[in-house]
């Protein structure tokens, strides 16, 4: 299994707005070959720290998603947020191979 974390920081007063956006996400990734799960995490002590966690069966499946057109379309939607402060946030991304469960 392969997991990817995309962590970004938003003003705490906008955290609920961002959570709402992800609760109503397009779900395009859900149909990607090898996709397993999506989680949205909010830091318990820093409300403005939000992490998207994706699970894929393999690194290759994730890389195929990233290289595909649906990935670009999904991220183009993010650039169209009405709130340009949120649209301009660049996440910190880390990728991990799951070695035990």
From TrEMBL:
It comes from Bacillus daqingensis. Keywords: Monooxygenase, Oxidoreductase. It is an enzyme of class 1 (oxidoreductase). Pfam families: ABM (PF03992). This is Antibiotic biosynthesis monooxygenase family protein. One of its GO terms (molecular function) is monooxygenase activity. Residues 2-90 form the ABM domain. PROSITE patterns: ABM. The keyword Oxidoreductase applies. Its EC number is 1.14.-.-.
């Amino acid at each position: 299994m392969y997991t990817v974390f995309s962590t970004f920081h938003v003003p705490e007063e906008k955290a609920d707005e961002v959570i709402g956006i992800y609760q109503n996400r397009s779900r395009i990734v859900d149909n990607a070959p090898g996709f397993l799960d999506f989680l949205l995490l909010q830091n318990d002590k820093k409300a403005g720290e939000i992490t998207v966690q994706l699970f894929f069966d393999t690194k290759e499946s994730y890389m195929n998603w990233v290289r595909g057109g649906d990935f670009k379309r999904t991220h183009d939607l993010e650039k169209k947020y009405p709130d340009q402060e949120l649209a301009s946030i660049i996440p910190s991304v880390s990728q991990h191979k799951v070695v035990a469960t």
